[in-house]
Amino acid sequence: MQQLIYFFQKYKYFLFFLFLEIIAVALIINNHSFHKSKFISSTNFITGGLYQKSSNISEYLNLKERNAVLVEENLALKNKLEKITTYLDSISSNQTIDTLKLNQNYNYISGNIIKNSFHKADNFITINRGQNYNISKEMGVVNSKGIIGITDNVSNKFARVQSILNSKSSINAKFKNNNHYGTLIWDGKDYNIVQLTDIPRQALFKEGDTIVTGGRSTIFPNGIPIGTVIKVPEELSAVNSINIKLFNDMSNLGHVYIITNLNKEEIKTVENNNE
């Protein structure tokens, strides 16, 4: 308290001068419309800038929550789209609309990658979804850009995914613009490039053509994006192989969707029936 009194005694003339200056400026602003408008504009500019900075910081801190909301919205849209696709496929198969049953073939479950390897010969990914979310072996894992891999080991809370960057990976794929199929593998060299092999000699394709899943398994639906053809070989051979540039950056993965084939067990029962 004594120091505060000493401060006022020492700087009393300066403080009195500052007080008079504030009063003078206030009188000028209040009695002159031009000065008043300039003052208001200046304060609005300053406070507006502060509010903008505060808003930007708040938005940044809430990004995780907003991303989670977007993932759930995308999940709901994917499941609705699957129902619509099934409906349209049923119509195209000459069934009468009156007898159609809107049965969903696939269901999507959202998750996050908590571990990802991409430099080894056999790469695996760990996701934060397991048996508690009805995750089992041999389920496709994708994101908004394309395929990522297939689940191969599951616990209650987590699952290991065999990445497409794995020497044992073998996925049915095809050209988007025709029905020529091949097998998607990885040669272990570049994590951005995989190979499409066993392509028929009569297949017509060019650089830039899109490769998608073929749908000839119980794991991935038909038409999920994979990548594009990088270079067309000059001569086609019996074991024709072409390089595919992935849509996904396999070194930078986050949110994923795990695909459940709702008809998987029935399909396997039929296929394994020897009678």
From TrEMBL:
Q: Which cellular component terms (GO) are annotated to the entry?
A: plasma membrane
Pfam families (alphabetical): MreC
The record's listing under InterPro entries reads:
Cell/Rod_1, Cell/Rod_MreC_2, MreC, MreC_beta-barrel_core
Q: Which residues form the Rod shape-determining protein MreC beta-barrel core domain?
A: 113-259
Alphabetic keyword roster = Cell shape, Membrane, Transmembrane, Transmembrane helix
Keyword 4Fe-4S tagged: no
The record's Gene Ontology biological-process terms are: regulation of cell shape
Q: Which positions, given as ranges, span the membrane?
A: 12-29
Q: Which NCBIfam families match?
A: PRK13922.9-3
Which family is this protein grouped under? Belongs to the MreC family.
Which protein, by its recorded name, is this? Cell shape-determining protein MreC
